[in-house]
Amino acid sequence: MLTLVTGAAGFIGSHLVDRLLADGHEVVGVDDRSSGANVQPGVELWEMDVSDPALAERAAVRRPEVVFHLAAQVSVRLSVADPLGDARTNVVGTANVLEAARAAGSRKVVFTSSCAVYGVPDALPVPPDAELRPASPYAASKVAGEVYAGMYRRLHGIDFTTLTLANVYGPRQTPEGEAGVVSIFTDALLAGRPTKVFGDGAQTRDYVYVGDVVDAFARAGGEAGGGLRLNVGTGVQTTDRDLHSLVAAAAGAPDEPEFAPPRLGDLPAMAIDPRPTREALGWEPGTVLREGLAETVAWARDRNPVRP
Ligand SMILES: NC(=O)c1ccc[n+]([C@@H]2O[C@H](COP(=O)([O-])OP(=O)(O)OC[C@H]3O[C@@H](n4cnc5c(N)ncnc54)[C@H](O)[C@@H]3O)[C@@H](O)[C@H]2O)c1
């Protein structure tokens, strides 16, 4: 089938493009190249802003069956500094992508959300039906996108699935994203630079491998999971201190981080429950953290072969 992937040049988007092509689908990518640098061969790329109304005109001509919407302003910190800029890309952009899907007569939109929408939850791992408590413009923009997707389903009959991602890591990730810490530790440890852990190292996150994440997207592009919010995480909490040890071991580097004062606004703990995703999509996070980190470090080493 013909698919449209926004954010196709980004970290997760480029892996999704690889996966869709491998599955025999045709891919049209949309990306303004503001941060994404991964343009895959064999992909028709529309270099444009997701909030550009011309997107609907082009989509109406190409008529993708499924739209995977990943393009976003991805930084929580930038969203606090520039909430209107965040809303332009993440809220207006999502409304525009939904309008493009309507103009194209698409069957389904797969919308990319974030576990940030849960804020400080009552219990961990967070189930997908937990109360949404966005605590940043970025998180609020993801809630808004999901509300818009639900509205397009009711108003225009375009199906959607929201995939709520934990901290995604893997080859091609950059330090700016939500799981940027893996990339920051990897780059510093391979280069022999000092590393910093904020707070006492007990803060936790749920790390999910990008190969598993794009498997969830590929499944969500089918008939299953319609109208649902589904968590794409492992349900397992990993502390910052343990993550440092794991990356150091994979990099063959000393496990000696410096400790810095905690950062204002950082959530103390996060993990999201993937069990309803298994029921809906038959999806499981198959990659254990140690293996995924080994792949990530190997990729970073290959990119810069002077490193030990
Ligand atoms: N990486 C994570 O851990 C994580 C966690 C939760 C949710 N997400 C979500 O997953 C999606 C992909 O994130 P990623 O980590 O691959 O980030 P990324 O920055 O690598 O990819 C985002 C892509 O969108 C493009 N883009 C940004 N603004 C655009 C605009 N206005 N118009 C067109 N293209 C634009 C960028 O050039 C980039 O290629 C995002 O929606 C993000 O919010 C990521």
At the fourth level of CATH, the homologous superfamily of the largest domain is NAD(P)-binding Rossmann-like Domain
Counted up, domains total 2
How would you sum up the major sheet?
A: 7 strands, parallel
> What is the CA–CA distance across the termini?
44 Å
The best one-word shape is: globular
Strand sequence of the main sheet, in spatial order? 3-2-1-4-5-6-11
Q: Can you count the helices?
A: 10
Q: Approximately how much helix is present in the residues? A: 40-55%
CATH architecture of the largest domain: 3-Layer(aba) Sandwich
CATH top level of the largest domain is Alpha Beta
Q: What small molecules accompany the polymer chains?
A: nicotinamide-adenine-dinucleotide
Global Rg: 19 Å
Q: What structural category characterises the helix and strand content?
A: alpha/beta
What is the H/E order? EHEEHEHHEHEEHEEEHEEHEHH
What's the total number of strands? Answer: 13
Strand composition percent? 15-25%
The CATH topology of the largest domain turns out to be: Rossmann fold
Which regions have little confidence, pLDDT < 50, spanning 5+ residues?
A: none
Mean pLDDT score, rounded? 95
